[in-house]
Write a structure and sequence with these properties.
single chain; alpha+beta; three-stranded antiparallel β-sheet; two-stranded antiparallel sheet; 1 helix; 5 strands; binds zinc ion
Length: 82
Amino acid sequence: MRSPRAGHAGGEELESCGACTSCAAPGVPDEDAEAAQAWTFAHLAAHPTHTGFREEITRHWRADLVPGPTSPAVPVARRVIT
Ligand SMILES: [Zn+2]
């Protein structure tokens, strides 16, 4: 039996995406936060009264099952950052 466990190996993939809080227009997600922010400036230029934005950051990670520390019959989860 395998079990989950938590882990952190670095190399996290983060993705930023802006969204307008005036009209709920979604931005363009990008791993480069500045590139994602460029959408907000273009949106502001097109809609000068839309000055509020929300940045959503998504962290991608994986989980796998490994043998438990006390018993292989008790599953433990682990977070794996790839
Ligand atoms: Zn807007």
